[in-house]
Amino acid sequence: MTTHQPSQTPRGVATSGAALFADTIEDQAVPVTRVDWGPPMDGTSDDLATVALDPLRSEANERAVEAVLKVQAMLVDVAPASDVLGLQPGEFLHAGPPLEWERASGPMRGALLGAAALEGLVDDPDDAAALFESGQNVSMSPCHHRATVGPMAGVVSSSMWMYVLEDPEDGRRSYCSLNEGLGKVLRYGAYSPEVLDRLRWMSSVLGPLLAKAVRRTGPINATAILTQMLQMGDEGHNRNRAGTLMLLKELAPAMVETGTASSEVGEALSFIGGNDHFFLNVGMPACKLALDAARDIEGSTMVVAMARNGTDFGIQTAGTKDAWFTGPAQVPDGLFLGSYGPEDANPDIGDSAITETAGIGGFAMATAPAIVRFVGGSVPDALATSRRMGEITLAKNSRWPIPILEFDGAPTGIDVSKVCRTGILPQINTGMAGKVAGTGQVGAGLVTPPAEIFPAALSALAEARRGRVAAAVGG
Amino acid sequence: MTTHQPSQTPRGVATSGAALFADTIEDQAVPVTRVDWGPPMDGTSDDLATVALDPLRSEANERAVEAVLKVQAMLVDVAPASDVLGLQPGEFLHAGPPLEWERASGPMRGALLGAAALEGLVDDPDDAAALFESGQNVSMSPCHHRATVGPMAGVVSSSMWMYVLEDPEDGRRSYCSLNEGLGKVLRYGAYSPEVLDRLRWMSSVLGPLLAKAVRRTGPINATAILTQMLQMGDEGHNRNRAGTLMLLKELAPAMVETGTASSEVGEALSFIGGNDHFFLNVGMPACKLALDAARDIEGSTMVVAMARNGTDFGIQTAGTKDAWFTGPAQVPDGLFLGSYGPEDANPDIGDSAITETAGIGGFAMATAPAIVRFVGGSVPDALATSRRMGEITLAKNSRWPIPILEFDGAPTGIDVSKVCRTGILPQINTGMAGKVAGTGQVGAGLVTPPAEIFPAALSALAEARRGRVAAAVGG
Fold first, then answer.
1. Which of B142, B226, B310, B459 has its CA 20 to 30 A from that of A181?
2. Rounded Cα–Cα distance for residues A411 and A134 (Å)
3. Domain residues for B347?
4. Residue B224, min C-alpha distance to chain A (Å)
5. Does some domain include residue B291?
6. Which residues of B touch A269 (CB under 8 A)?
7. Residue B1 lies in a domain
8. Cβ–Cβ < 8 Å for A389, A357
9. How far, in Å, are A55, A342, B312, B434, B435 from residue B438 at the CA level?
10. Are B358 and B294 contacting, i.e. CB atoms less than 8 angstroms apart?
11. pLDDT tens per residue across span A388-399
């Protein structure tokens, strides 16, 4: 037997089921397309058929994914939330779909308490619980409703400084607060005095310095930094080490040249260099800006946001306007810090799943084999995950090639109908917050959305299609 | 057929020859050790037998590779070559084995001419040719003879500032000059006024600033940075992007806090951040320091240096003291810049193959799939290269795990007898200098040493063994 008889060798083979058959033909130099086949999700057959027959769908999805792929997100400014979002003291943004105080989890409550103290609404953060219970002089709304994303609790209040990202093609913007580091930090629900002191330093020193530096360098291409990161072992969600270093490299000379006292510049450089996640808060709004380009495209079954508030996991799709499809957030499966264990972990929280929605994070696990030691799992798992995510997405992002997959693009644009048809759920890498307010981070791991939100979104997409048919018949 | 019948499944299989057999059993979850088998190199059978029977060999090689693996190279200072190496104007170090002006290639001559002008021996670099021809008031010796390594031409002269690396266990030191960037630079044989101006700025501004910063930060662990780089897409020879960023991160705050004018600090930060190879000149002496720990171990067949002077490729082994085994340097095979082609390339040059000698560079290709586009080749080639280098090395370096090979350590410690027995030559990634003095870089590619130097080294090792037998019989 020889492997070099082209005339007898098929051009390619598609396989499903056990890998042995695929492996054996691949060994004979035949290109193999592996298809993860499973039955559709329960009760979705009718809706799948309705959506599949929608004449708008194919072109709408093409438009949606192309709109996402063409965005180059530029970091153009750093400014207080009061300026760029018009937030007043007492107005709070939070991660995930809409949420009321009564249903908020421990880390979400902790972050809100801390932010209330930061804004001077109370002296002791614990006193703010009564404010949120009464609802007087305070309001809560999702970051996503203000073109913003926030990691973990994602709480944004008026005095916090925000990255401002812009699409130079159409001037659209997205926003994210500055990253505080790891451990006892507000976004993980901690609100002790050192947490608030750090936030005050970030508002008084770091934010203004970054603002001066960014205005000096001019726009920084965050999408291009993400491209480089994916060649440097970052997947852009749980690992942002190379991205952080590249941002530092871009900003450091300008920070020095702002005329700021060298002790403050040195302190800021040390803070950034000492926080491997610093770039996360630039990468997330870059993904948000790309995905927002695909909102409100009738007939598109593409997911434009996946977000968790610590209680609910929600998705939005291009074809269903501002509707959220929500279900209970799951507890991630992963590795724990110190003596923490699964019983200490809050359910999944944060807007950071915007990275997976855009094709990186858990979807680009193959590019960050080192991350598997941080979230649990093996290198072959990482490669298999990226390949599997190709089954439920609309495109490979050629701007984000994954070297180890022979420069195949990151799998981008989750298709609700593909998820329902295959039963494959999006894979998310994430940090884990302690479920008790004030705890901080307890670990990191892997999680998926609750399965039922995809049939729910599909059902709404099918309903919209039926509405269009009825309207056409009626007209 | 099932793959899960442990009682019927062998524990493991070693295979040689065509991959089909190995692939098929591996698919059945049987661990496979692939052995690249070929006949020994011509005429080496007797020497291989003599060396194989040497009772010192096994323990000597174990000692040699352990000595290498345990070194943690610390960057402890930056200082002029005149201070730390005692170099006088007119004394020049160069890459590779010993070389005379008459046999020096174009880029080596270009670098020497430029260095002579830099030291004020002549005003016009071209006038220095007469000095080197006469040999009056100038001398040339290998970097390796002064605990130093130099990339490409590797020319070091007295006013250049050097990184000083130290092994804290025994105080041994190694040295390397600062990296100039790419294109028209001295190490590629360019010596135009802008090349010399940059070198003067490096000696007057960059060197002193780095010295102050390193003294402020305290020792920086270069070996640990190499560990991180290998998880970030760098192989440490042709790609040093992550390493450069990590060094920048370590030094930036201290550079700011030295009290140096902020315009100079900003300029230095931009220079470092704009040169992806800046860390190469720290990684190389880190490798040199590790390998020097294994010098002069009687009976060891391990290579402690591979170096090229643009004319000759030389190796030294642990068991043959200061002897060089040399043959003609080859022209690399790779990709060219602009309109340059193979006819413009000089034969292989530089001490940078110290990285491969230590197990990174071409040996760690698997960790840097992005590099394959820079030197030519494919991702599977990169994985195969790292696995193949495992066939000719003594150990896997657990300090330098390669994520994509499931954290297998970098293949470290080239064994002359394994090279001769298998015919597998070390794989080197390298830059290519233009063969005409003054040209600069023309490309990057892959190269191997001339095969004959390994049988020559083996013969010397066999001769030493015969000498020990004769002495024992005589005594």
1. B226
2. 45
3. 45-69+296-474
4. 15
5. no
6. 252-253, 256
7. no
8. no
9. 65, 64, 20, 8, 9
10. no
11. 999 999 999 999
